[in-house]
Amino acid sequence: MTTRGARAAGRGGRGDLFDPQCPTRRLLDRIGTKWTSMAVKTLADAAPDEVRFADLRRRMPGVSQKMLSVTLRNLTRDGLVSRRVEPAVPPRVFYRLTGLGLSLEVALAGLRTWAEEHMAEIDRANEAAAREADEG
């Protein structure tokens, strides 16, 4: 049994973000993480070249090997990243954004720009909320 949101999104229509089974919501959950955003940005900066796993990890401070592996596996599964393995000991693994991944970078760049333009306002709102919490 499918929900209205899942059916609509499956047909290329708009989903229902309030429906936990909505494919659009599930996709946004995956691409909305900080590690996904950083990986896409790092790969976009290197495009059209490939980036080795170890280089990606160095360019993404704070990401663990496991979290980067999971992030790249998800991006590859979703068709946003391509993966190439060179047989060696140890194997050399390379990643690059697909055309679909490059289109995601455009959207994420807009979000980063918005964050940079509004971070001071958000910081002020957080400071005001903290003051109210301390006073109340």
In a few lines, what is going on in this structure?
The protein is mainly alpha-helical and 136 residues long. The protein is built from six helices and three strands; from the N terminus they run αααβααββα. The protein starts with a helix and ends with a helix.
Binned strand content:
5-15%
**Low-confidence residue ranges:** 1-9
CA-atom Rg in angstroms: 19 Å
Cα shape:
globular
Counting H and I runs of at least 4 residues, what is the number of helices?
Answer: 6
- Separation, N- and C-terminal Cα atoms: 49 Å
Please summarize the sheet with the most strands: 3 strands, antiparallel
Element-by-element helix/strand order: HHHEHHEEH
Structural class category: mainly alpha
Task: List the strand order in the largest sheet.
Answer: 1-3-2
What's the total number of strands?
A: 3
Overall residue-averaged pLDDT value: 89
How does the SSE layout of this entry go?
Elements: H1 4-10, H2 23-31, H3 34-46, E1 51-52, H4 53-59, H5 65-77, E2 81-86, E3 92-97, H6 99-135
Antiparallel strand pairs: 1-3, 2-3
Helix pairs in contact: 3-6
Summarize the structure in words.
The chain is mainly alpha-helical. Helix content is 63%, strand content 10%. The chain is built from 6 helices and 3 strands, in the order H-H-H-E-H-H-E-E-H. The chain has helices spanning 4-10, 23-31, 34-46, 53-59, 65-77, 99-135; strands spanning 51-52, 81-86, 92-97. Strands 1-3-2 form a 3-stranded antiparallel beta sheet. Helix 3 crosses helix 6. Residues 1-9 have low confidence and may be disordered.
